[in-house]
Amino acid sequence: MGEVIRIGMDTSKRFFQLHGVDAAEQVVLRAKHSPSQMRAYFKKASPLVVGLEASPGRIIGRGP
User: Rounded to 5 degrees, what are φ and ψ at 62?
Assistant: First the structure.
């Protein structure tokens, strides 16, 4: 299993879905974390690129 170099993060109401790939673009991570578990994961992780899923309901400061 390779080292995760990029993660896609899907934010839901209670959990974060993480999907990570290695340098060969092979999926090496599929995980569902609570906010506290996610913080603990990223504290231990090597530097990597994170892409966030954004939906209209999740954008802070969005106008009417």
Answer: -70, 135
Coil, helix or strand at residue 20: strand
Residue type, 61: G
Q: Residue 55: pLDDT band by 50, 70, 90 thresholds?
A: low
Instruction: Read off the pTM.
Output: 0.70
CA distance 26 to 40: 24
Q: Which two tokens stand for residue 10?
A: 């899907």
For residue 49, the SS3 value is: strand
Q: What Cα–Cα distance (Å) separates residue 46 from each residue in 3, 25, 43?
A: 9, 17, 8
Tens-place pLDDT, residues 31-46: 999 988 988 999 998 8
- Given a contact cutoff of 8 angstroms between Cβ atoms, the answer to whether 41 and 21 are in contact is no
